[in-house]
From TrEMBL, chain A:
Domain SUF system FeS cluster assembly SufBD N-terminal: 169-229
The protein's name: Iron-regulated ABC transporter membrane component SufB
SUF system FeS cluster assembly SufBD core domain segment(s): 238-480
Lineage top rank: taxon: Bacteria
PANTHER family, A to Z: FES CLUSTER ASSEMBLY PROTEIN SUF (PTHR30508), UPF0051 PROTEIN ABCI8, CHLOROPLASTIC-RELATED (PTHR30508:SF1)
Family: Belongs to the iron-sulfur cluster assembly SufBD family.
Source species of the chain: Cereibacter johrii
Automatic annotation (TrEMBL), chain B:
Highest taxon in the source lineage: Bacteria
Domain SUF system FeS cluster assembly SufBD core, chain residue ranges per copy: 173-397
Name of the protein described by the UniProt record: Fe-S cluster assembly protein SufD
Pfam families the UniProt entry points to: SUFBD_core
Organism expressing this protein natively: Cereibacter johrii
Entries under PANTHER family matching the protein: PROTEIN ABCI7, CHLOROPLASTIC
Amino acid sequence: MAALEETAVPEVRDGVDRETIETVQAMAGKYKYGWETEIEMDFAPKGLNEDIVRLISRKNDEPEWMTEWRLQAYRRWVQMEEPRWAMLDYPEIDYQDLYYYAKPKSMDVKPKSLDEVDPKLLETYKKLGIPLKEQAILAGVEGAEVPDAPRQVAVDAVFDSVSVGTTFQKELAKAGVIFCSISEAVREHPELVKKYLGSVVPQSDNYFATLNSAVFSDGSFVYIPPGTRCPMELSTYFRINAENTGQFERTLIIADKGAYVSYLEGCTAPKRDTNQLHAAVVEIVVLEDAEVKYSTVQNWYPGDEEGRGGIYNFVTKRADCRGARSKVMWTQVETGSAITWKYPSCILRGDDSQGEFYSIAIANNAQQADTGTKMIHLGKNTRSRIVSKGISAGRAQNTYRGLVSMHPKATNSRNYTQCDSLLIGDKCGAHTVPYIEVKNNSSRVEHEATTSKVDDDQLFYCRSRGMDEEEAVALVVNGFCKEVLQALPMEFAMEAQALVAISLEGSVG
Amino acid sequence: MAEALPQDDALAARIAGLSFPSEGWQAPARFDALARLTAMGLPKRRDEYWRYTDPASFTSAEPVPASTLDDGDEGMVFEAIDRLKLVFVDGVFDAAASDPLALENVEIGLLSEAQSDIHWARDLYGVLEARGQVPVKRPFAALNTAFATEGVLIRVTGYVPRPIALIYIHSSDTSDAVLHHCIRVESGADVTILENGPAAARFTKVMEVDVAEGGRFHHIRAQGRDHDRRASTHIFARVAGKGLFKSFTLTANGVMTRNEAVIELVGDEAVAHVAGAAVGDGKFHHDDTVFVTHEGEACESRQVFKKVLKNGATGVFQGKILVKPGAQKTDGYQISQSLLLDEDSVFLAKPELEIYADDVKCSHGSTSGAIDETGLFYLRSRGVPLKAAQSLLVLAFLAEAIQEIENEEIAEDIRQRLENWLARHEH
């Protein structure tokens, strides 16, 4: 096992909260999850063709219809062109020089329970702060922030191309909730998968989504039955480990009428000098009166200070608020990846449906992020709110790109957008590219954006109170991000805290 | 020029009817522009900066016929302003209708007559247009530089006491006018340029404005009158240190208008304000595409665009503030707002910021919505009749743009135009 990188121990003191420390660490370019698990892997041959697509399908034990679905997508993909409209500058990706499938050998025979999972894998997740044990609360969160009632979080852990295990499945089943890997869902719940897969993000939606449709290897599947409030938070943790391997996970979440679920997603990868491709698709279907909260801390390896290595993150996330009064909330903290191309969107189809998007995107060193959202108002009285905070430092480029569209029939709808950018240093860039399309007059659309630097007066004030510069910047940045941080669920904040603990461990040894 | 002819059939057809003067000092600039145009081709709907406006009526070989406005409409704007008049009829200079080209502190010449080999405009003609082609392609501006045969060349050397007015008369239903103006405001000089009139069934215009250090340039334009006319206009401006560039446009009629403004603040403490008020009823598509580049330090830019739309009218705003590395202390502001008076109108906006310097203050806002019910209620409760109250609120909405006009007499004229328009197009 490679040693953890030496990192300074963050000391939490009064006035500087945990998020601040996290923010500073992320901005300081110290990556805590850059180690690698040495484990024997099974790879599919490098490159992509119909045989590889069939092989992935076979490895997942998929029925014929699923294989066909993938092949259809593959055939579309070869005719498509990679989009280049984003403000991202990266060399050509050689899609034939990648592994599209990598699975730990020990997962050859699918473990029947978590006890049978390869200890090396369990250790990996433990180290990431995601213990795959069905314990009452997550490790490392005892203290002031623990709520009165013990919290439970069910986790689906995805390691390269396969799901390692899903916790609390039985307990969730009691409530009627299905939470499993998508490969399992294809086998066990084909009627649901057939009905909803590709219904929000169609096979040929865009270049990366189409690629994903052809080669997705695993991911999570969630179904919340009507009128059910999911008894615990659901979480998926993605880990890329193998070299030169693309990760293509697919997540499908269905909240049936009146259902509620809060879903968390985390991701990390080892440090390498080469770039790795990650092209995920997340589809969320929200029916009448249902509500889904989807929170992400994206912490893929961002590359080193010179811009060597890092993950290319091309993600399509979309929620379809199909039913009346349905609601979806995206919260994302984007700190990792060399390249981020990601626009979690809401289709507000049902009358009175609601979409929210809260985002913090931090780009440092040579990172480039082009991220934002789309709010497509189709139903009457639909509401959306966008709060985006972009922070650029080093030589990074950070772009907010968003669409707010009010269709003619989306009468009496409302959008409020606020996107603020903060620049730290004079070599970085912050950009805003909003598209606003209003086709009826009873709707109101408001968009505001500002760009500024860390305010000298605020810094001076903090420093005159005895903070050092880094702390002071962090505090100001934290204040800048507060609106979004407050939208993160409590459980996620705790998980994030557990992740920070890893850096403490590594620095001791 | 046979070898320079483009391969693209649509482009060949578009320029077939235009003449290409291949002699004289402008010739190199024209050949360059033709090469640019050939390389980029005509715009298509799928081009990023044409996603909201269909370029078809600008790319077609022949203009769509447009009738001139019937009588019964108000007289021409700026009639009461003491100004030097230069009249173009369907894009051709009309000496008889114009004033003599003489005014204090200014040299005025015509593009068609400026054939001497040494001419001050040589350093300007097509130069700013070429600079403005990156990063966004503007094919109609290149077309204009290559083929324009008429236009004015104005060199301002001091304070010009009267505004210089460019008046565009539209008389033929099928006219296709191409005008290219060059204006150089020398150090410390000050001039006001007025423009009004529909010009032609289809009008392609470029104005290149070079403001030297401490120079002041004011531009007020009223695009109105003919309902059917189509116009694609470009302003390319370069503003040196402590220079001032101010441009205001009122658009009240026209089936299709695309106004592009490309402004570079190259010196320190330069100022550029671009504003527009557009009021559209029915067949009306109005597009403001603005690109402001901050290169000097401590420059200020403002973009203020307001649109009032009804009966299916469409308003488009594509604005950008680009702050280059090193352009510290930039103050950039941009606002685009629409007031939709009924269910059928459309507002499409793309207000962009692109910033590469950290010590800057940039903001933009964009809103769209119906008339404010609370404001209406307040006015009515004070005894103001409904229609008067609505007009008052519409004028208040447009006020921020009109405030950009420094000359109060001209501003009042513009306000009057708007009031007349509102009276004619009562809801």
